[in-house]
Write a structure and sequence with these properties.
Blueprint lengths: L5 E4 L14 H12 L3 E4 L10 H4 L6 E4 L4 E4 L4 E5 L6 H20 L5 E7 L2 E5 H9 L6 H6 L3 E3 L6 H4 L2 E8 L2 H11 L5 E4 L5 E6 L4 H12 L6 E5 L5 H5 L3 E5 L4 H4 L4 E3 L6 H9 L3
Length: 286
């Protein structure tokens, strides 16, 4: 067995349970991996400010793949080893198109639903100030409101913030109507220069074409000459599949959909039962 592994691991739906929390057991296992010389590589659609504090507090992380591969972060030097923005003008176009598709869909559906956009730009996360007002008063199940109110910079009319949007690395839009999310992803999958994926039910994520977690992992492999057989990739959703292809060992969570599981070498227990931690304990004999 290879002595030391690079463990590329997703956050939402993998390390985080259904309540958006990381258990003490999972943190302890990740720290033990680091203490024994393995490399824990957060690989997520989130930006650096949105990483859970328990992940930030781990001792020994060297790199992270952020924004679905739009940024490869050097943890120790606190700078981007690699960064790729959306094509010029596309961020504004995406946000305005989503607004129009939402309007048309609402008229046809005959029922009210909402969507919420966040833009990762130059390492910061921006959202529309109207959404903040809603999150402060609305009763929303789970921890979504808490997520949106933490580490986000709120601005008026996000789609008109040209200085922010021209540096956008990724756009993430959460839809209450899952069907609308699917329609928008399907439309933008056909647009040259744009890559779309999803990481949780009802969201649509946009990066530059060719940018995904797999590409981010490949960049690290090339820069650091990491053999494929030394990489373990653990994830639960569509945006993790490209990462699986770059790893010698791929692990899907039990809570993943079947198409994701079919792309993996192993299936771990679900994220509410510390599946990632349990797999690492057994595989690495911790």
């Amino acid at each position: 067995m290879t002595d030391r592994y690079w463990i590329a691991v997703d956050m939402d739906g993998t390390l985080l349970n259904s309540r958006g929390q990381i258990s003490e057991r999972t943190c302890a296992v990740l720290q033990k991996c680091l203490d024994q010389g393995h490399h824990v590589l957060p690989a997520t659609g989130r930006a650096l400010p949105l990483l859970p504090e328990k992940i930030k507090n781990l001792s020994g992380i060297s790199y992270a793949v952020l924004g679905n591969g739009s940024v490869v972060w050097d943890w120790k030097k606190t700078c981007a080893l690699y960064k790729k923005c959306l094509p010029e003008g596309s961020a504004e176009q995406i946000l305005k198109d989503v607004r129009e598709m939402y309007r048309v869909h609402q008229e046809k559906a005959g029922k009210e639903s909402r969507y919420y956009a966040e833009v990762i730009s130059d390492g910061k996360v921006y959202a529309d100030s109207l959404d903040r007002e809603y999150f402060l008063t609305a009763e929303i199940e789970g921890n979504f409101a808490e997520y949106m109110l933490s580490n986000h910079a709120y601005v008026k009319r996000l789609e008109d913030q040209s200085e922010i949007l021209k540096k956008a690395e990724k756009i993430n839009i959460f839809f209450e109507d899952v069907l609308l999310s699917k329609k928008i992803r399907e439309k933008w999958q056909k647009v040259k220069g744009i890559y779309t994926t999803t990481s949780v039910a009802g969201n649509a994520e946009f990066t530059a074409e060719g940018i995904n977690k797999g590409r981010g992992l490949a960049i690290l492999k090339e820069r650091l000459a990491i053999p494929k057989e030394q990489i373990i990739a653990i994830g639960d959703n569509e945006n993790d599949v490209e990462m699986f292809k770059e790893a010698g060992i791929s692990v899907a969570m039990e809570n993943a959909k079947d198409p994701v599981k079919q792309q993996a070498d192993f299936v771990a227990a679900d994220n509410d039962h510390d599946g990632a931690a349990e797999f690492l304990e057994k595989f690495l004999k911790l």
